Structure formats: C-alpha cells, structure tokens
C-alpha cells in the first residue's frame, strides 16, 4: 500500500514540477515576444517622427523661400 502511495506522490510531484517548468518557459517566451514588439513599435515611432521632422523642415524651407521673395535681405545684416 505504501508503495502505491509513494508512486502516486512521485507522479504528482513530477507532473507539478514539469508543469511549473513549462509555465516558466512559456512566461519567458511571452515576455520576450512582448519586448520585441516594443522594439518594433519604437522603431516605427522613430521613423514616423523623423518623417514628420522632414516634412516640417520642407515646409519651413518653402516658407523661407516665399518670405525671401517677398522681402529683400541685405547680406550684411546676416553677419
């Protein structure tokens, strides 16, 4: 009888230990994937920000050209 009880206890411990190891690996993989997605999102935000800055620069450049055509600038005043 005690041999059967020992076998059940051993089986239960092995099962729970295996389940714990699997759970930890699953959690680590999930966290790794979440971190990777964060990196991808950061890259996308950075590209979007750079594009917006480029568009702002182009708009500023156009405005400057318009202003320079409308008013004369004395080069000595820029020094």
Automatic annotation (TrEMBL):
This is Cytochrome c oxidase assembly protein. Belongs to the PET117 family. One of its GO terms (biological process) is mitochondrial respiratory chain complex IV assembly. The keyword Acyltransferase does not apply. Residues 1-23 form the signal peptide. It comes from the Eukaryota. It is found in: Mitochondrion. Keywords: Mitochondrion, Signal, Transit peptide. PANTHER family: PROTEIN PET117 HOMOLOG, MITOCHONDRIAL (PTHR28163:SF1). One of its GO terms (cellular component) is mitochondrion. InterPro entries: Pet117.
């Amino acid at each position: 009888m005690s041999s059967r009880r020992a076998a059940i206890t051993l089986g239960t411990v092995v099962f729970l230990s295996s389940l714990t190891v699997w759970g930890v690996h699953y959690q680590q993989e999930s966290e790794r994937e979440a971190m990777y997605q964060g990196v991808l999102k950061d890259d996308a935000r950075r590209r979007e920000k750079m594009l917006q800055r480029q568009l702002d620069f182009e708009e500023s450049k156009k405005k400057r050209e318009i202003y320079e055509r409308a008013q004369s600038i004395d080069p000595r005043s820029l020094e």
